[in-house]
Write a structure and sequence with these properties.
Elements lengths: L7 H11 L13 H4 L2 E7 L4 H18 L2 E7 L1 H14 L5 E2 L6 H5 L8 H7 L13 E2 L2 E2 L15 H6 L8 H11 L5 H13 L2 H4 L5 E3 L5 H16 L18 H10 L3 E5 L6 H8 L4 E3 L9 H12 L6 H15 L7
Parallel strand pairs: 1-2, 1-3, 6-7, 7-8
Antiparallel strand pairs: 4-5
Helix pairs in contact: 1-6, 9-11
């Protein structure tokens, strides 16, 4: 490396603090392009086109500031694995490349990645430090630097915001204010976050006798989880070398895993009388998951509670077996109660 060249380490050190761009070294030797003051970066196209434009702007800005010729190559995410494998095989290619998601690529290409211990130690104090540095170590070494792209745009239910006299938030203060008001409408979003954490962290596998009830959020959120968990797992299986997370049976989908634990009497979901999607969820996972929960006497009185029970009894989409399961049998199972009489 000549004094006139630029190293990938220089880019990582300066870009992390100046332009917010980080990358991962893709080979364990200094690139020939660095001697001619060039730096190439391979990454994948974002779901949000403006993100790619902003990344190029930052990269070009860094190049102009440091008098380095830069080249940003953006390809479809499905092409990245093949491209990286080809560059490793030929021992040539880009100076920096995106890895992931997760740590799997860094472990797979461990022998072909440069050690970044010095860079990680230099970048961290300039940017608030790592949340937990152990989360990024591969076999005890820094082989990558975490890089977060701008988040996906937030989907907002404007009809629900109108009910509480609000509009789409512009600041975190708006989000906190709206969140406090919106909590009165129910807890479906928080329920999905909690459910995802429990499922994908393998809590039911770690604690085989555990039963969990998900209450006060209705039942519709579960349909979203069943669909999105399956779709997400098809393309983003989490890296689990220590077998710490969810343990699927051979060929088992996430929704099938959930149904298995419902059938085993380990997952319960509270429901009310006006659940329009109840019969659809029973079709999806069976009737052993759902149990009537009134929150009596916190938010409802005796008459209201009786009316909701009547709505379940009169629900023409439910069989008698479904109604018995929802109104008493599943609660008896969840609380280990013995039926009266």
């Amino acid at each position: 490396m000549t004094s006139r060249g630029v190293s990938r380490r220089q880019f990582l050190r300066t870009s992390a603090g100046a332009a917010g761009v980080a990358g991962i070294l893709a080979a364990g030797r200094a690139p020939a392009t660095a001697q001619t003051k060039e730096l190439s970066f391979l990454t994948v196209a974002s779901f949000v086109p403006d993100t790619d434009k902003e990344l190029k702007r930052q990269f070009d800005e860094w190049g102009a500031k440091n008098k380095v010729k830069v080249r940003l190559d953006i390809i479809a995410h499905l092409q990245l694995q093949t491209k990286k494998a080809a560059e490793v095989q030929s021992r040539s290619g880009h100076d920096l490349t995106a890895l992931g998601p997760g740590l799997g690529d860094a472990d797979l290409y461990f022998d072909y990645l440069a050690d970044l211990n010095d860079v990680a130690g230099d970048v961290a104090p300039k940017n608030g430090g790592w949340l937990n540095s152990d989360d990024y170590l591969i076999r005890g070494k820094w082989k990558l630097l975490p890089w977060w792209q701008p988040p996906f745009p937030m989907a907002v239910r404007t009809d629900l915001l109108e009910k509480i006299g609000e509009k789409a938030p512009d600041t975190w203060e708006d989000v906190l204010r709206i969140g406090k008001k919106g909590k009165a409408l129910g807890h479906p979003f928080g329920q999905m976050v909690a459910f995802a954490g429990i499922i994908f962290n393998g809590i039911f596998d770690k604690f085989p006798n555990l039963r969990i009830g998900f209450m006060e959020a209705g039942v519709s959120w579960l349909q979203t989880c069943l669909e999105r968990f399956d779709r997400g797992w098809e393309t983003h299986i989490q890296y689990d070398p220590r077998e710490e997370y969810i343990r699927l049976q051979p060929g088992e989908s996430i929704s099938a895993y959930i149904r298995r634990h419902v059938e085993a009497g380990r997952i319960f979901v509270g429901c009310e009388g006006t659940e329009k999607a109840l019969h659809l969820l029973i079709e999806a996972v069976g009737n052993k998951a759902f149990m009537f929960s009134s929150d009596f006497p916190h938010e409802v009185n005796n008459d209201y509670c009786k009316r909701e029970i009547a709505e379940i009894v009169e629900n023409e989409h439910l069989t008698d077996e479904d109604k018995h399961a929802v109104l008493h049998r599943n609660a008896e199972q969840f609380y280990s109660l013995k039926p009266l009489g």
